[in-house]
Design a protein that fits this description.
Layout (H helix, E strand, L loop, with lengths): L1 E2 L16 E6 L3 H13 L4 E7 L33 H9 L6 H4 L9 H17 L4 E7 L2 E5 L6 E4 L4 E3 L2 E4 L9 H16 L7 E4 L3 H12 L6 E4 L7 E2 L18 H19 L3 H16 L4 H10 L1 H8 L1 E2 L1 H12 L3 E4 L11 E3 L6 H8 L6 E3 L4 E4 L2 E8 L14 H15 L11
Parallel strand pairs: 2-3, 2-8, 3-4, 8-17, 9-10, 9-14, 10-13, 11-12
Antiparallel strand pairs: 1-4, 5-6, 6-7, 15-16, 16-17
Helix pairs in contact: 1-4, 1-13, 6-11, 7-8
């Protein structure tokens, strides 16, 4: 393990004020959003380690993955919660300024290349860091094997045996330690290159059915791979395209039920009523229902929450995670060629180089593995604080996609940003510091 070059390692701390030591596990969009929230809301000197097993901060926009359109439109990708159009305005100023594109479409509706979104996030990261001379940020490449929460403060234990103690740990690892995005891309290109050199090649199998699979599949085709591709997906269908949002979808008061069956009966009933009353697209109705699930969730006992995670989480994510409309059209056209088809789901095996893991389902088990506990005993509140068998686990917060493995959506980046700010604020009673409205 080793330190990368720190974003700033010369922060100046006032005399007599001890600096907090904070770890952020994950250097992707969730981790960067958490770092920004800390710098904007934590009014105390601190040193933050951005820890990632593979990637430097912002690496999600590198290479071929950076050319892929963002899954969500610009209107949902602000890292400034009080300015939801911040990314759209940044695009207008930095990408669309003076161009004809600006006159043809609203920047709020654009699915920009991920590299541009990365540049926007890093720009906002740099701006807020310039205001905090009392903050040190260090990037650290290392695989976290275990988070020991049994001591006075949490300890990270790395795969090579080294360890480090922190005042607070934010887990923002996206989809868990086993489903790395960079690894999926690299394995897919190696497999395509190998199969292209064979006389009678077997099909290339991509496991999953989310945005990552869609992006890799279309890029392989654009790169010239002409072999058969199988999509091994439990749903047997493509993710759905985005629809325009419909403000004002009204839902009735959720039941004070402690039954998952009754909770989803309420959601189905309200969805049918809202769709008939508003005459809108089902995507908008599902999104509005997802926002209400957090209220329903508070009343459910742990056994019912575990039933949701076992039986309904994947289905809920399938109908909540969307693609850019253009990507969806291209995928549908690719399926129509007959060169790409759905097959029965199968688990990828490390020895089979023609089966590529493109899954992106957040895993409560991955989180439980870090903590060496039972996933069925874990729960999480609105502020990202973990509990085990109902007892709070101090000084550990969970943010982003990995948090949605423990409670229902909405599964959006805007919700991740809100989670990050709530996590910073809710950590205050546990000793981080008072907060600032900077």
């Amino acid at each position: 393990m080793f330190f990368d070059r720190g974003a700033r390692e010369d922060g100046s701390w006032p005399a007599g004020v001890p600096a907090l030591k904070i770890a952020i596990i994950g250097a992707g969009p969730s981790g960067l959003a958490t770092a920004i929230a800390l710098m904007k809301r934590l009014h105390r000197p601190f040193e933050a380690w951005l820890v990632d097993a593979e990637d430097a901060p912002g690496a999600f926009g590198n290479g071929a993955a950076g050319l892929v359109p963002t899954t969500e439109p610009a209107r949902d990708l602000s890292v400034v919660p009080e300015r939801p159009d911040d990314f759209a305005e940044w695009l207008k100023t930095n990408w669309l300024a003076g161009g004809t594109v600006a006159t043809l479409c609203r920047p709020q509706d654009l699915h920009a290349p991920r590299a541009l979104f990365r540049d926007y996030v890093m720009a906002r990261f740099g701006e807020v860091m310039a205001l905090r001379k009392d903050v040190r940020i260090r990037t650290f490449r290392g695989h976290v094997r275990h988070v020991d929460a049994g001591g006075a403060t949490p300890r990270l234990i790395f795969r090579d045996g080294e360890c480090a103690d922190f005042d607070h740990v934010f887990v923002a690892t996206g989809f868990g330690t086993a489903q790395r995005e960079a690894a999926s891309w690299q394995a897919a290109h190696r497999a395509a290159e190998h199969l292209s050199g064979l006389e009678n090649p077997p099909p290339l199998t991509l496991v999953g059915n989310g945005p990552r699979l869609a992006a890799i599949l279309l890029h392989l085709r654009a790169d010239g791979f002409a072999g058969d591709i199988h999509i091994a997906a439990a749903s047997g269908r493509l993710p759905q395209p985005h629809a325009r949002p419909q403000p004002g979808l009204a839902f009735g008061e959720p039941p004070a039920s402690r039954s998952l069956q009754e909770a989803f009966r309420y959601v189905r009933r309200e969805c049918r009523s809202a769709e008939a009353r508003e005459g809108g697209q089902w995507q908008a109705v599902v999104d509005a229902a997802s926002a209400r699930l957090a209220i329903v969730w508070r009343n459910l006992p742990q056994v019912e929450r575990n039933r949701y995670r076992r039986h309904l989480l994947r289905l809920h994510r399938h109908f909540s995670i969307r693609l850019a409309p253009d990507v969806h059209r291209r995928l549908a056209a690719e399926i129509e060629t007959g060169r790409t088809r759905f097959v029965a789901p199968r688990a990828p095996k490390s020895a089979d180089e023609t089966v590529i893991d493109c899954r992106e389902v957040p895993s409560a088990r991955a989180l439980a593995g870090l903590l060496s506990c039972d996933a069925a005993a874990l729960s999480i509140d609105d502020g990202g604080h973990l509990a085990h068998h109902g007892a709070s686990i101090p000084a550990i917060s969970v943010v982003g996609a990995i948090a949605s493995s423990l409670r229902p959506g909405p599964f959006t980046f805007a919700e991740t940003v809100r989670q990050a700010y709530r996590a910073v604020l809710s950590a205050t009673p546990h000793g981080l510091a008072r907060t600032s409205e900077r």
